[in-house]
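Q: How would the structure tokens look for this protein?
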Amino acid sequence: MFEWIQEMADWLTYGIFSLEPETRLAEAVNFFIYDSVKILLLLVLVISFMGVINSYFPVDKVRNFLSRNKLYGLEFFMASAFGVVTPFCSCSSVPLFIGFVRGGIPLGVTFAFLVTSPLVNEVAIGLFVGLFGLKMTIIYVSSGVILGMTSGAILSKLRLERFLTPWVKEVLAQAAREEEEFQAEQTPFLQRLPVIRNEVFKILKGVVPYVLVGIAIGGFMHGYIPEGFFEKYLSKDNWLAVPLATVLAVPMYSNASGILPVVQVLVHKGVSIGTAIAFMMGVVGLSLPEAMLLKKVMTLKLIGIFFSVVTVCIILSGYIFNVLL
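A: Here is the predicted structure in token form.
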């Protein structure tokens, strides 16, 4: 689906800009071009789709269904399962997260999706089977879903809606007003398009600067962090290896499928599997570019709480992996 974007990024990087292949600058620039186009395209498509859905779909019913107590955690499982079937990295998941919040889905449920989506997807599952076998894959997928559900459940108990940014609150208020107008007037779809289009531009205008800054940070990390830097710190003999791997992973930026070959190399060089997977989860679930993107929709306090809860869950998962395997 995104091959043409990669071809364009290669053409611009090595053809138009005449950068030498396999240099750090070329890798950083190529990464920035590819992810910028991909994520901006996803933003347009997802926000437009959510605009159509929000103008027709009975959001109140969905919200009530996902927030009923008798579901006993099923809403978190549904959100995590949806995260598994969406092949997005952490930054690509943010547009869907915004759409969920705008649609009135409870914040804890949206967090369950936001945690699981970058960690587990069908591409990563296929690679995981080839690299580590079926047993490891089942444990990995299960832990990713449980991690998302646990993080979402914990965050939902903290009632963090008050820490959303004023921009999100205004988007929610605007969405509520538009929903009331549509319900009252029963406006035909073609007449709704201008409102949907204006909403897309409004959200894009507010989000795009954060997207570009986040991807620029990710491109720098992708191109300039030296290979082999982490291996000497993550040996099996170091009982602090799991939390250290999780913390060291934060400046990195990649999706699960991109980091899995690195995980395989780390394991082959003596890093325990739990530590390597904790590192992978930290890379895809706790990246600085993701924090930059989330800054538009969350206050710094909420980002800190979100990252802290996910970090603790990742560290516990790493230790469990080391014990079981």
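The CA atoms of residues 47 and 203 lie 8 Å apart.

The longest helix spans residues 189-224.

Upvote if useful.
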